[in-house]
Amino acid sequence: MKVIYKWSYLEYEYNTETERRAAIDSEEFIPGKGTPIDVNVFYGHHPSEKKMFVTIPRFQKGVPFSVGTVTNRTRNGNPIIAPFPSWDWYRNVEACGPRRIVSVYRIAIDRCGRLWVLDNGVVLDKKVCQPQILAFDVRTGRLAYRHELSKDITTDVTLMVTIMADVRDSCDDVFIYSADCQGNTIYVTDVNNDVSWAAKDKTMYPWPPYGTYNILGTTFDIMDGVLGMALDPYQPGTDRKLYYHAMSSPTENWVYTSHLRNRTMFQGGELSTPEIFHTFEGKRSTQSAAEVIDSKGTMYFGLNGKQELACYDTKSENYGARSSMRIIEHNDETLQFISGVKVVKNSKGIEELWAVTTPFQKVYTDTVDTKEINFRILGAKIDDLAYGTGCRHGSSPLPHHQTRPYGHGY
Length: 410
Known about the structure:
Layout: E1 2-7, E2 11-12, H1 17-25, E3 38-42, E4 51-55, E5 67-75, E6 78-83, E7 104-109, E8 114-119, E9 122-123, E10 126-127, E11 132-137, E12 143-148, E13 160-167, E14 174-180, E15 185-190, E16 195-200, E17 212-215, E18 218-221, E19 226-231, E20 241-246, E21 253-256, H2 257-260, E22 278-279, E23 291-293, E24 298-303, E25 308-313, E26 325-330, E27 338-345, E28 351-357, H3 360-364, E29 375-381, H4 382-386
Parallel strand pairs: 2-6
Antiparallel strand pairs: 1-29, 3-4, 4-5, 5-6, 7-8, 8-11, 9-10, 11-12, 13-14, 14-15, 15-16, 17-18, 19-20, 20-21, 21-22, 23-24, 24-25, 25-26, 27-28, 28-29
């Protein structure tokens, strides 16, 4: 994959130098703090409409806002990030008013031009507000939908980290699936009826042996449950699978969305329907965070203990087998930890893969060196990546002496 943007540390857009200095003095903004976790791209119908979104969750002190767009301006070589939709959404968030964004790990853009934001309401380790789901018009930044999850279904440890937007036959028929990596739960939101419920299963829990991470020789412990989620391509009138996995685990799981969307299945209790959740027999060799599936059913994800980007043919049941899972790329520098991946159709209708990578082992151990390049947004055409991997159903891997043509198209 090609590096499109890179930072030694994140820079944020302020109206004046005086405002920026005041933010630094008050520690609203601490240079060297802040970690990008997710990326998404909106192309629109005209080049002027293109937006590159990034998320910066507030698990570190000194992060002034949590959702932004990458501008074409730089400071000390670092692309400047502007707040989305505006600064107003990040003022006085502790009041928990309706126009707030506290902290966001991941986002989703649907085919109807809406940016779905999963705000977990947590700053550092403190729960400030109830988690909420927001939808904005991507072009205008206007709020299109807001839903605050009830205290009746969330817990004190709830940490919402990943969001999937399941748009059915029309833009009004939408269900949202939200992963809670600390409560080990997937929350389902029926947008049309403005109601949510919790789905819980043992497959959403972390595996203790996979709670210790080793990235380029640095070890640290994280016991994160369900985090990675991906929807297979939607075909009108048919069922759909939601794939998911706990980050601190080697397994991949799936459930039909028709089951998740059926609220009555969970009225007997969160763990009352174990038969609807399925786990592949094969396993990954290491932990993985985000995942995504393209229009042909190929899944892409990082193998974060090996600094690799991998793919899997979801039409195969042989998860983990060499015949259906392949390594696309290995890079100790640019693929240290893949935290966000998205498949996006560009203005020509060509699918692209976008990813955010970080030295998460240094973030976690507070050893980030701001004199080095630390954070990257990478992109590539899907066809260039998937060519010859064997991850596309019906295709065969290239012989070992051949390589894939990387045109990137940028």
